[in-house]
Design goal:
six-stranded antiparallel β-barrel; 4 helices; Elongation Factor Tu (Ef-tu), domain 3; disordered N terminus; Helix Hairpins; conserved putative lor/sdh protein from methanococcus maripaludis s2 fold; alpha+beta
Length: 365
């Protein structure tokens, strides 16, 4: 009777084993552990070598026009914003007084010349009489002295007339160069002393773009190098200039030196004292190693890229430079032609197996 339970147990075990053998062919196959990624090759393209800069635009020529004569302002003929040309009349200062003084000086000169003619004629008569022993020597000496004094009076009158004429010219205030009135300081009715400011004028046909550069670039900045920049008023416009002056000294506080670029401004879009940001082009079309921006990973201050080696990826630390047109400059850490990962970074680690997506295999970047 005890053999029956034992036989039942053996049969049950046999049935379970047979059941597992039948189910094993239906088990799910092992998963593909390769991570699908997009890739691109490290390229070398021509790229300008540049120095980012910020600075201010200044007028190449700027002047404060001051009164050169004393008197009351009769009239101002321009106001701020007006464009003027060299020699254009800007204001009048007590012109009637200076016209009268000029006429008086001319009259005094004419009088002095007439007196000189009389003195010369008397000298000639006395010389003739003295030769005939009629006139004494004292008369001749007096005639010579009178003639000399008359000539001196002519010279003094000529100088006074020249000063009067110059004052008359200065009473008509004129523009020293082509430009625009930045500020009108004096008004009609103001009484001015010599040196009192009337206008501030700027020449904005040509501007100076003044910037600061780190002292480490002192040997790289040279005259005639191109500069490109933008201003907030026209963010989509790129303006150009050329380096024309370089400071001979470095600022000890900032460890930087100044340089300036001349910028032509024929359409008057740019205004003096405008802030501008741009770059100095140190060298054009320099062969530069780049990768797409998507390849760059930044974590804890370290920049890395996953590099593909026979379907296996390894992270590599790199040094990066500028960004241009969607590409990141690589200063060190990669070689041209190596393949780097663009997408799928979240599932990658050192030694991970990858599978390049079909579109990348067909059309590699």
């Amino acid at each position: 009777m005890k053999a029956i339970p034992l036989l039942a147990a053996v049969c049950a075990a046999t049935l379970i084993s047979c059941s597992k053998e039948k189910e094993s062919p239906k088990a799910a196959p092992a998963r593909d552990e390769a991570v699908p990624v997009s890739v691109s090759a490290v390229k070398t393209i021509p790229m300008d070598r540049t120095l980012p800069i910020v600075g201010t635009l200044f007028a190449k020529d700027e002047a404060t026009i001051a009164a050169q004569v004393e008197g009351q302002v009769e009239k101002t003929k321009v106001d701020f914003g007006d464009r003027v040309i060299a020699g254009q009349e800007l204001a009048l200062i007590d012109t009637h007084t200076y016209e009268a003084q000029s006429r008086q000086a001319e009259a005094n000169l004419a009088k002095a010349k007439a007196s000189a003619v009389n003195a010369e004629q008397r000298l000639i008569r006395v010389q003739t009489l003295q030769k005939e022993k009629i006139a004494p020597q004292s008369d001749l000496d007096q005639a010579v002295a009178d003639a000399g004094q008359a000539q001196a009076e002519i010279q003094a009158a000529e100088a006074a007339a020249a000063i009067a004429k110059l004052n008359l010219e200065h009473s008509h205030v004129r523009a020293p160069f082509d430009g625009a009135i930045a500020e009108r300081i004096a008004s009609a009715g103001d009484y001015l002393k010599i040196g009192t400011p009337l206008f501030r004028i700027v020449n904005d046909d040509v501007l100076k773009y003044i910037v600061q550069a780190p002292e480490s670039y002192a040997g790289l900045v040279k005259k005639e190098q191109p500069v490109v920049f933008t201003v907030d008023a026209f963010p989509s416009n790129r303006f150009e200039g050329k380096v024309f002056l370089i400071s001979p000294q470095v600022n000890t506080a900032t460890r930087a030196f100044a340089f300036g670029a001349l910028v032509q401004n024929p359409d008057k879009k740019l205004r003096a004292s405008t802030f501008a940001r741009g770059e100095l082009i140190l060298a054009k079309a320099v062969p530069t190693q780049v990768v797409p921006l998507d390849a760059i990973l930044n974590f804890a201050g370290v920049t890395k890229i996953f590099v593909v080696d026979k379907e296996i990826v390894h992270p590599r630390e790199v040094q990066v430079g500028r960004v241009q047109n969607g590409f990141q400059e690589i200063l060190s850490g990669l070689k041209t032609g190596e393949t780097v990962v663009l997408t799928g970074h979240a599932k990658l680690q050192d030694g991970a197996k990858i599978r390049i997506k079909v579109e990348d295999e067909t059309h590699p970047k």
